[in-house]
């Protein structure tokens, strides 16, 4: 079920819809009427175009918003490199001979597990120039102040912060943990529904965009006043910083279809087999980032929410498989029916990576359980939700992910599948030709 609603502050009002064209003003009359860039925008605001696709992208893909703000984003001193940041790429000068290849636009995805113990301060903001960030909250709420307004993202909710949107994260319920997927190309879409029809899975009306909300701390010009606001940017996987005298959260009104949004996973309308066999998990896709090849995603965000299993004569958990796509899985709450938990099991906050063509499936205990289970209608995953980032790209793991995090579970393969039993019984009537001899 959806996350329980409680009284939200005024700033947490939302506009509902996916890929919609919204308009919102925190002060009446702040949006210009009938044009985007009047000679003098209302209330002395600056008009700023914010594009999420190339200007000439086809209409159905085009994403942009117009922001009406107290000062334009360009009003800041130069950025300098953050040499000791986590994405450090600075190297001392050396006499090596170098040749340069032409720059390629970033492609693909990045996957992260985050933990946070303290809120960002009111004078800090961050943005990624590399891609859109899909955040999966697992523990602790994130109250995210963005240039376009606030999003409260609680466990069992997700949000997407598009490339370039500045934001500041607060932790209203204490320490937070979760997962994120950074998409370096394109944007997320809702999956096609095909014969399912015009509703189900994630419905467009359940996506929520913020309303405009601004603060007023500014110097009269870009260079006036103490440079007390720190802006950090992730640019080509390196961090850079600048300080400016005015708040970046000064957007009084905006309109457009390029904006951050959130979604409550409890609203997902899950579809499954009502006859037999286990369908492909693509029926659980919430959001998809398409490649140029139809049906093959750069990234799919797939969830495994509580659902009724009724398939007859069927091995109900996921089958054993090797997948041409890579599968990164996480557990938001509860347990997962292919890995029943306990010692060496899949735990909330944990993750697994089954890369391209790496064989996997239920662990031996889950397999034996499901093989012998009575096939009555069963609610699986009550109070639980696993998810998967699935990609057509092979996934590399950083030094941090391999070693430095010291969280890689020893013996995972053996504990999961070392104990799978042979159930093969050769029929006595069968004649077999075993060659070469063992
Ligand atoms: O590997 C997994 O647990 C994820 C998964 C679930 C499923 O129902 C079918 C295929 C699949 O990869
Ligand atoms: Fe899988």
UniProtKB/TrEMBL annotation:
* GO cellular component terms attached to this protein's record: cytoplasm
Asked whether the UniProt record includes Oxidoreductase among its keywords, one would answer yes
According to the entry, every stretch annotated as the Homogentisate 1,2-dioxygenase C-terminal domain falls at 267-423
A biological process (GO) of this protein is: L-phenylalanine catabolic process
Q: Which residues are involved in binding Fe cation?
A: 321, 327, 360
Cofactor(s) recorded for this entry are: Fe cation
Q: Which residues form the Homogentisate 1,2-dioxygenase N-terminal domain?
A: 13-89, 106-265
| UniProt protein name | homogentisate 1,2-dioxygenase
Family recorded in the similarity comment: Belongs to the homogentisate dioxygenase family.
Q: Sorted alphabetically, which keywords does the UniProt record give?
A: Dioxygenase, Iron, Metal-binding, Oxidoreductase, Phenylalanine catabolism, Tyrosine catabolism
Pathway per its UniProt entry is:
Amino-acid degradation; L-phenylalanine degradation; acetoacetate and fumarate from L-phenylalanine: step 4/6
List its EC numbers. Answer: 1.13.11.5
Indicate yes or no for the key word Iron.
yes
Sorted alphabetically, which Gene3D superfamilies does this protein's record hold? Jelly Rolls
Q: What domain of life does the UniProt record list for this protein's source?
A: Eukaryota
PANTHER family xrefs: HOMOGENTISATE 1,2-DIOXYGENASE
Q: Where is the active site?
A: 278 (proton acceptor)
Annotated GO MF terms: homogentisate 1,2-dioxygenase activity; metal ion binding
| Binding-site residues for homogentisate, renumbered to this chain | 336, 360
């Amino acid at each position: 079920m959806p996350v329980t609603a409680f009284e939200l502050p005024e700033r947490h009002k939302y506009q509902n819809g996916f890929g919609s064209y919204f308009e919102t003003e925190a002060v009446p009359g702040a949006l210009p009427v009938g044009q985007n860039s009047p000679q003098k925008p209302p209330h002395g605001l600056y008009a700023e175009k914010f594009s999420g696709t190339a200007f000439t992208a086809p209409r159905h893909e085009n994403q942009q918003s117009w922001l009406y703000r107290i000062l334009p984003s360009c009003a800041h001193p130069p950025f300098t490199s953050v040499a000791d940041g986590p994405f450090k790429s600075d190297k001392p000068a050396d006499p090596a001979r170098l040749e340069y290849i032409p720059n390629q636009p970033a492609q693909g995805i990045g996957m992260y597990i985050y933990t946070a113990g303290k809120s960002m301060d009111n004078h800090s903001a961050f943005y990624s120039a590399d891609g859109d960030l899909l955040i999966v909250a697992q523990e602790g709420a994130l109250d995210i102040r963005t240039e376009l307004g606030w999003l409260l993202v609680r466990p069992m909710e997700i949000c997407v912060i598009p490339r370039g949107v500045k934001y500041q994260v607060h932790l209203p319920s204490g320490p937070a943990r979760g997962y994120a997927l950074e998409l370096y190309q394109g944007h997320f879409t809702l999956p096609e529904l095909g014969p399912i029809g015009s509703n189900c899975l994630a419905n467009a009306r359940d996506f929520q965009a913020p309303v405009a909300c601004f603060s007023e701390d500014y110097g009269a010009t870009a260079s006036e006043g103490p440079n007390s606001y720190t802006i950090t940017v992730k640019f080509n996987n390196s961090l850079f910083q600048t300080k400016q005298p005015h708040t970046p959260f000064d957007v009084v009104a905006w309109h457009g279809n390029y904006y951050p949004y959130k979604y409550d996973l409890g609203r997902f309308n899950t579809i499954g087999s009502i006859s037999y066999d286990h369908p492909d998990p693509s029926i659980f896709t919430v959001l998809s980032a398409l490649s140029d090849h139809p049906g093959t995603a750069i990234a799919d965000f797939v969830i495994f929410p509580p659902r009724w299993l009724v398939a007859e004569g069927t091995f109900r958990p996921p089958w054993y498989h090797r997948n041409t796509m890579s599968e990164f899985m996480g557990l938001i709450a509860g347990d997962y029916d292919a890995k029943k938990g306990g010692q060496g099991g899949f735990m909330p906050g944990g993750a697994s990576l089954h890369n391209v063509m790496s064989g996997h499936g239920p662990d031996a205990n889950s397999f034996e359980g499901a093989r012998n289970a009575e096939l009555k209608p069963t609610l699986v995953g009550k109070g639980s939700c696993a998810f998967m980032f699935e990609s057509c790209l092979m996934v590399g793991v950083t030094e941090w992910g391999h070693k430095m995090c010291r969280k890689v579970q020893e013996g995972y393969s053996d504990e999961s599948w070392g104990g799978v039993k042979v159930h093969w019984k050769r029929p006595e009537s069968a004649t077999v030709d075993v060659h070469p001899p063992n």
